[in-house]
Design goal:
This protein has two domains: 2-59, no CATH class; 68-267, no CATH class. The longest helix has 38 residues, at 26-63. By secondary structure, the chain is mainly α. It is 84% helix and 0% strand. The radius of gyration is 36 Å and the shape is globular. Helix 6 (136-156) packs antiparallel against helix 9. The chain is built from eleven helices and no strands.
């Protein structure tokens, strides 16, 4: 024990002598250790806080959907794409000369074909998109571009369309074939309507939301049926109003299409 203490004291004494000989202050080592300890103690919480904040930010980004479609927007879009405002005129034209019974049969059959087509298109479209792993912002951007272009086309050609189609529509003899072509396809079930339905089903967060979208589609098809059943009365009494309403809804469709494009570009960090 005595030898150990002596050697320790000698080592301490020699260390002091060496520090003095080299002009190193004895307290410099201790100050350096203290500073290093304080830096580490101050840095560790900072690193921990920074890591926690970064993890929280990543969790937030991962949990937040890139694009959110409110249910009101979904109703508006599907009403514009599949609603009765664009059905009344073509139905009256293609059923000209048919009796009331045949008109009702054509209307009901067209709605049945439309419902089956939308069901198959929605199911197959969502399955194909998931299989090919197409990012949802890309899908929304494509749908927004389609909706925008179609809205522009409908707005520009809204008046020339009726005059150009009237001659060819009057030649066709009313029959049950009209329920499938052109009423179900492409008057009721339009390509952009199918695109909108696939987009909304793909963005739906759960099965309950998808069921709600399906109920919205069924409600719109019910309105389509009522519009066809009373098409001649509606066209006679509300002809000018329906034309104005169609133009207004076309402008709204253009705006909503641009909004989807804008939101998709923001989700892709382009804007």
């Amino acid at each position: 024990m005595t030898h150990h203490k002596t050697s320790s004291s000698l080592n301490a004494t020699s260390c002091v002598r060496v520090c003095k000989k080299k002009n190193y202050p004895v307290a410099a080592g201790a100050n350096f250790v203290r500073a290093l300890g304080k830096g580490l103690l101050a840095g560790v919480p900072s690193v921990m806080i920074g890591s926690a904040a970064l993890a929280a930010q990543n969790d937030t980004l991962a949990s937040e959907p890139t694009i959110v479609f409110p249910m009101a927007h979904i109703v508006t879009f599907l009403f514009l794409m599949l609603g009765p405002t664009k059905i009344i005129g073509p139905f009256v034209k293609v059923t000209a000369g048919a009796d009331r019974t045949l008109e009702n049969k054509i209307a009901r059959t067209a709605i049945v074909f439309s419902a089956i087509a939308l069901l198959i298109a929605g199911f197959l479209g969502e399955m194909i998109l998931k299989k090919h792993s197409i990012p949802l912002p890309i899908l929304a951007l494509a749908a927004g571009v389609i909706l925008f272009l179609v809205a522009i086309q409908d707005t520009v050609r809204s008046f020339s369309f009726s005059t150009r189609e009237s001659a060819s529509s009057a030649v066709a003899k009313p029959s049950m074939k009209l329920a499938l072509d052109p009423l179900a396809f492409p008057v009721i079930v339009t390509p952009y309507g199918i695109a909108a339905l696939i987009v909304f089903l793909s963005f739906a967060p759960d099965a309950e939301s998808q069921i709600q979208i399906g109920l919205i589609v069924l409600a719109i098809l019910a309105l389509d049926l009522l519009a066809m059943l009373f098409a001649r009365k509606l066209l006679t009494t509300l002809g000018i109003f329906l034309a104005i309403l169609g133009a207004v809804l076309a402008v709204v469709q253009v705006a909503l299409g641009l909004q989807i494009i804008h939101n998709s570009l923001r989700a892709l960090n382009i804007l």
